[in-house]
Amino acid sequence: MTPSASVPLAELTPYLLRQTALRASILQSSFGFAADDWDDLRQDLALDCLRRLPRFDGARGSWEGFVRGVVRNHACVLASRQIHRPQLQSLDGGDGSELPDGKAHEPCVDDFRSVLEFGLDTERVLTGLPNDLRNIARLLGEMPVAAACQHTGLTLAQMNRRIRQIRAAFTAAGLGPAKRGGYR
After folding, report:
1. Which of 52, 61, 126, 129 has CB 3.0 to 4.6 Å from 133, enough for a Cys bridge?
2. In sequence order, what DSSP letters do the residues of 16-36 get, joined into one string?
């Protein structure tokens, strides 16, 4: 099956980029990837999804679900590789040639699951928001508040009101500061 026959390519690209940006941000913030790895992570996630797109079967589900699943699964693979990658660092301030014992630096599998669940919960809350708030929330995931104000034409006060509405939606869904340790 060709992707163009069942997947609207004009809608696929922005959706795929949003999904890969979300997962790249989660990977970067939670699994020790360097700040300059974000673009590479997003590209790796997108390319993996595009490679798998010919296997999409519209009879089994929506293309959005296919994209979400493929990107999520590949993010798990990348996170697992990062977790199990040997970390070279010095224990005594030397040249970095000694390996650490691994106990203090390896994330727990439960932490890994919790980060993935948080990403899924976040996506669920975002899809439940009105379009204007969802767009602002996605912008804020990519740029600072001041740049989002400039991009949308909103004043800082207007943007802050919308941010409070977005936070209220997250709190109502049980994703407020008390449960997850704060907003990202």
Report:
1. 129
2. HHHHHHHHHHHHHHHS---GG
Within a domain: 162: no
Q: Is residue 34 part of a domain?
A: yes
Q: What is the spatial distance between Cα 161 and Cα 44, in angstroms, rounded to a whole number?
A: 36
What whole-number distance in Å separates Cα of residue 95 and Cα of residue 108? Answer: 28
Nearest Cα neighbor of 180 from 124, 111, 129 is 111
The tally of domains found in the chain comes to: 1
Joined together, the tokens standing for residue 175 give 């994703």
pTM greater than 0.70: no
Q: What residues of the chain score a pLDDT lower than 70?
A: 1-6, 85-119, 176-184
DSSP state of 97: -
* Residue 55 amino acid letter: R
Whether 149 is in a domain gets the answer no
- 71 token code pair: 């990107």
